[in-house]
Amino acid sequence: MNKELRYPLNITTKAALKDIAKGIPALLKLFYRLLRDERTPRRVKWWIGGSALYLILPVNLKFRNLKRFPLRLINYVDDVIVVYGMVQRIFRDTPEILLEEHWDHALPFREWQDLLFKVKTDIQNII
User: Fold this and answer.
1) What residues make up the domain containing 42?
2) How many domains, the chain?
């Protein structure tokens, strides 16, 4: 997907996260529609299925003996990183026309994707 990002966006990271959260139902609907569309490449369908399987499997890192805050945070951070990577792979491998056609949200798909990029970049700048 070749596009120009409009980063830095004139929005705070907190507000961007709220807008991203509002788009999650549209993202799930997008994935469902992509699975049903015969024009969707097979590898994209595999990535969507793998992402769903990863989220529903109860396998996770457990630090029962180590109850310190940073180690407990790893349980959530690893899920966010893996899911973000899978979603970006799905976006990259799916023809843009399909993404635009199946996206059903008030915020256009490209702008929602720019919010993801902004939050990722802001987090990287902190670390």
Assistant:
1) 13-112
2) 1
pTM of the complete model: 0.76
Closest to 23 measured CA to CA, from 120, 113, 94, 105: 105
Average pLDDT over residues 56-75: 63
Task: Name the H helices within the chain.
Answer: 13-22, 24-36, 42-56, 69-93, 96-102, 109-126
101 occurs within a structural domain: yes
Q: For residue 61, what is the enclosing H or E element?
A: none
Is residue 118 included in any domain, yes or no?
A: no
- Is 22 inside any structural domain? yes
Q: Which tens digit of pLDDT belongs to each residue from 4-24? A: 555 556 888 888 899 999 999
